[in-house]
Amino acid sequence: MKILPPFFIFSFLLPPPPPPPLLLLLLLLPLSTSQTSYYFPTDNIAVNCGTEAITYIDNRTWMGDVATNFTPIEPPNTVNKSTVQSSRSNIIIDPLYKTVRLSRSPFTYSFPVTTGPKFIHLYFYPKYNYEFHRSDAFFTVQAAQFTLLKNFSAALVADSSNKSVIAREYCVHVAGEAPKLNITFTPSPNSYAFINGIEVVSMPENLYYSPAEQRMTTPIIGNNIALELYHRKNLGGDDIFPSQDSGMYRNWDGSNLYITTKRVIAIHNDSVSINYTTTTPNFTATDSVYQSAIILGKDRTLNSKQNLSLQLPVDVGFNYLSNGTNLAVPNTVVALAPEDKPVVKNSNATEIIAAVCSSVGFAILFSIVGFVVIWKQSKKKTKRRKKKKKTREDNWLSERRCRIFTFKEICKATDYFSKEREIGVELFGVVYKGIFEDEGNLTVAIKWLNSKSSQGEQEFVKEIELLSELDHFNLVSLIGYCLENEEMLLVYEFMPNGTFNDHLFSTSKSLLPWRKRLEICIGAARGLNYLHTAFDRPIIHRDVKTTNITIDENWVARVSNLRLSKLGQKNTAVSVSKLAGTIGYIDPEYVFTLEVTEKSDVYSFGVVLFEVLCGSKQNDRVASEEKFKLMLWAQKCLEKGNVYEIIDLNLKGKISCDCLK
Questions:
Q1: What is the spatial distance between Cα 388 and Cα 381, in angstroms, rounded to a whole number?
Q2: What is the rounded average pLDDT of the residues 127-137?
Q3: Is 213 a member of any domain?
Q4: Are strands 146-152 and 139-143 parallel, antiparallel or unpaired?
Q5: Which of 114, 185, 363, 551 has a Cα-to-Cα distance from 498 of 20 to 30 A?
C-alpha cells in the first residue's frame, strides 16, 4: 500500500464505495509506533528529578538532577532553596514518580542542545510532600521565550481527570550559535513549584514545523511557535508506549474514545507492505499504524447516510493544528493545542496555525471522511471475517437500520429472564442485561414491555420507526426489537456505567469530579439538541432527568428512554391530552397549558443542572424541608446572592469562579 501525498482538508466527502474497496478514515497527522527506531535524536535527555542516582525505566536511562550536569540553577541570595524528597508511597511503582524537586522560589534547568525543534515532556505526580501540601502547588513553566503553563495546578488537573499522574508534551524550536534550552519553574505567590521528570528529545526538522520553502503556504508553523499536544490517536490500533515509538518517545492512545460514528469496525492487516517516500519518511509513522484502521463496513446504503467522525475535547481561545505537512497517514490523528491555561507568547499564532473553534467550549466535531483505499487482504482472512459476521449482517434491516430478534434469542441472551440479569424496573417494564454468546458476547440492554401497558402493537411499531432513525453519539441506540406472540421487547446498547443519577446520588459510587460532571452535562445537551434540530419536526423527550442520562464505557453521556417522546412543531406548541414526565422536572407552563415545546425539555434539563451543582435531588424526601423543593431553594439562595451556599459540599473549593458567573 503506497502512502498518499500530504494535503490539507477538514472535510472530504465521497460517494458510496463499490463493493471491493473499503472506506477508511484518513486523518492527516502522524505518528505511531514500532519497536524499530527509525529516527535517532541528536538530543536525547531524560532527567529524573529529586535524585542523584541513575534510573533505568522502560529500557531508557534517566539521569538524576542532584550533583549532576542537570542540577537546576537558582537565583543568587535565594531564601527558599529548592529541595528534593522521596516518596514513601507504595502506590506509584514507576521510579520516575518516587522522587521530586520542590521549591518556593524560581529554579531553572539549562540543557545544552543542538539547534532545531525539540519535544519537551514534563511529568507531575501531585501528592502530599511533608510540609508541601498538594493543593498549594501553583506555578508557571517557561521554556525558551514561551510560557507553557501559567498558574498551573497539577492537583486540580489530576482530580478533575481522575488521574494520579499528569504528563504534558510540547514542541519548541531552539536557535543560536551555542544553543541552550532553559526551562524555568516559577511558583505563584504563597505557593510552590515541583517537577518529577523532564525529557528533551530532538525531532525531525519538518515533522510539525513548516519547511522553509513552504513558509509562503498555509498553514504555516514557523519556528517562533510553540505547540502543546492535546490528542494523539492511533485509530484502529493498540496503545503505543514511548519505548515502542519510532525514536521520539511519543505515547499513542489506541482506544475508541471520541469516535462519534456508531458501528465502526477496527481492522488490522500486518501483511500490508508500506512504501515510504521522501515526503513521508519512515519515522513519520511505522508500519503497524498504517496497517490498522477504522472503517464503516460494506453497507453502501448505510455508509451514504453517515461519515466517519471524531469528537475531540478542546478548549476555546486557542488555535489547533489538525493536519500538517509530510504527515499523511491512513488512520491516525494528532491535535496539538494548549490546555489548563497555558499561554503561547506569540502574536502571530492565528496566522500560522489552522484555527478551529468550539462554540460549546469543550468539544469540536471533526467530520472527516477520507479516501477509498483498496485494502489487500488474504482470502483466508476475508472468508473468516465474512463467516464470523454473516449471521449478524444478514439480520440487519437496512431500511430501518435495526434488527429483528426472535423471542428464543432473547430468552437465551437473558438466561430466560433470570433475576440475576435484571438491571432495572421502569414504569413500562423490566430491563435485563442480555449477552448474545453466538455473536462475540455482544452485551445489550433488553426492555421487556409490560403486557398491561396501554401501548399497543401499532404504537410499538411507530416507536421503533422513530428510534431507528436516530443516530447520534449522545443517544442510546436502538439495536433491534422483538414482536412475537404479543410480546414486545426493545434491544438497546448496554451502558456499563449506569445512569448519571447513580454517580451523583448513590453512596456506593465514587464521587464525580466537577469537570467530569460538566462533560456529561454537555454530552446530554448535545443529544437533546440533536432531537430538537436534526429533523423537520423536533422530537421532544418529555422526561429529561438524571436517571435517563446513561453513561457508556468511555464515560460519554447518552440520553435514553424516549418512550414518552413526542413529535412537535418548530417554534410552535403542541397540545397533548395528558401530562407525561416526572414530577419536579416538568415545565410549569406545560402543566398549566397542556402544551409542550422543545423549551419543556430545556426546563427539565435546567433542573438536572441544578442537581449536578447542588448534589441534591429535586423532591429529595430525605433532605431537609428547606431543600425538598430544590429549585425553589436554589432560587432563594441566588436572589440573596448566596450562590456558594447551593454548591455540593464535595465540590467546594474545586470549582473555578468563572464557572459560577
A1: 11
A2: 78
A3: no
A4: antiparallel
A5: 363
Amino acid at 81: K
**Average confidence (pLDDT) over 580-584:** 85
Confidence category of residue 452, pLDDT binned at 50, 70, 90? low
Q: Please choose, from the candidates 41, 46, 69, the residue with its C-alpha nearest in 3D space to the C-alpha of residue 59.
A: 46
Based on the fold, state whether residues 244 and 365 are members of the same structural domain: yes
Domains of the chain: total: 4
Question: Which one is catalytic: 159, 543, 552, 601?
Answer: 543
Give yes or no: 587 in active site.
Answer: no
pLDDT tens digits, one per residue of 87-111:
544 444 578 888 899 999 999 999 9
499 located within any domain: no
Give pLDDT tens digits for 600-612: 999 999 999 988 9
Residue 450 corresponds to which cell in the numbers above?
409490560
Residue 55 shares a structural domain with residue 152:
yes
Residue 381, phi then psi, degrees to nearest 5: -65, -40
In angstroms, the Cα distances linking 631 to 581, 607, 638 are: 17, 7, 10
As a whole number of angstroms, the distance between CA 556 and CA 361 comes to: 16
**Which residues have a Cβ under 8 Å from the Cβ of 507 and sit 6 or more positions away?**
none
Q: How far is CA 591 from CA 62, 150, 620, in A?
A: 67, 50, 21
Are 478 and 512 in a shared domain? no
Q: What are 509-538's pLDDT values in tens digits?
A: 777 888 899 999 999 999 999 999 988 889
**What residue type is 276 in one-letter code?**
Y
CB-CB neighbours of 429 under 10 Å: 21
* Peptide bond preceding 126 in cis form (omega within 30 of 0): no
Buried b (16+ CB within 10 A) or exposed e, 500-521: bbebbbeeeeeebbbbbbbbbb
pLDDT tens digits, residue range 199-228?
999 998 878 887 655 544 445 678 888 888
Same domain, 152 and 276: no
Instruction: List, in order, residues 6 or more apart from 467 with CB less than 8 Å away.
Output: 402, 478, 490, 562
Going through 180-236 in order, the beta strands assigned E by DSSP cover 180-187, 193-195, 197-202, 227-234
Predicted confidence at residue 117, as pLDDT, reads 93
SS3 assignment for 460-498: HHHHHHHHCCCCCCCECCEEEEEEECCEEEEEEECCCCC
Residue 462 to residue 454: CA distance in whole angstroms: 14
pTM, entire model: 0.49
Which domain covers residue 432, as residue numbers? 396-493
Cβ atoms of 135 and 154 within 8 Å: the answer is no
Average pLDDT, the chain: 74
Closest by alpha carbon to 610, among 660, 560, 562? 660
Looking at the fold, whether 461 and 589 belong to one and the same domain comes out as: no
